[in-house]
What does this fold into?
Amino acid sequence: MTDLSSRYGTRTRPRWFWPAVAAVGIAIGISFAAWVGFQDEPVKGRLWGYDVKSDHLITLSVDVIRPDPLAVRCTVYAQAADHSIVGEKTVEVPASKAEKTRISIDVQTERKAVTGVLRTCEPRT
It folds into this structure.
């Protein structure tokens, strides 16, 4: 058996090669993070509050913020004490000239909910 490196030789990279690769990777990562961070969101939704009305009903108040008069679809759900989802509802919010709109959503639940959660608010397509 012969040693392949003695037969064919070894190929060495310059000392700056791996630091240069790392620097380029870090620069690409930072650029991507900045690009994602500065994207304008066409619609924002915020859960303003919730009220447990009974063992089978919870009411959620959601603020819909949109700079343009867009129609929006919001999805909310209710959770029980064991964190399982006990009710969910999707509502359509019509286009409006008001930048901020507060909507109330009644969600029927299969058992008592202890909290309400806003899953998403997105422009309706």
About this structure: The two ends are 68 Å apart (CA to CA). The chain has a mean pLDDT of 90. DSSP finds two helices and six strands in the chain. Helices lie at 4-8, 17-37.
